[in-house]
Design a protein that fits this description.
Length: 137
Amino acid sequence: MKKKYIIIIIILLSLLILFFIYNSINSKPKQKNIELNNNVNVIKDQTLENLNITNVSLTISKNKTSTFSADVTNNLDSNDIEYINIIFKDKNGNIITTLLGYVGLELKKGDMTKIYTETNIDLRNVDSVEYERGSIE
């Protein structure tokens, strides 16, 4: 009687192991939750007057929310640019959307700040990004 239980347990464990092996071989890779737009004209370093804009990142989440971030460094003794318009264009040069990034007037020479902005527009097909002075008006 004891042998029967041992054999049943061994068979069940073997089936369980085979089940895990089968699932690990046949499981689909998980989909990424975010996608990066690494187009060279999107992520390239640029200058807007006295501000260097570097380390640009444009990510698009699974729910199509696009997030832009960049480092902004002031190269002059003073800074009079408080806001930056971030202009996203398609491959034909048409504006897809313009987002506003806050720099702040307190940025001293050599100081760096990070700007973040987000939209519910899917920006995975953006071909280039341009910058200009912005305002909240």
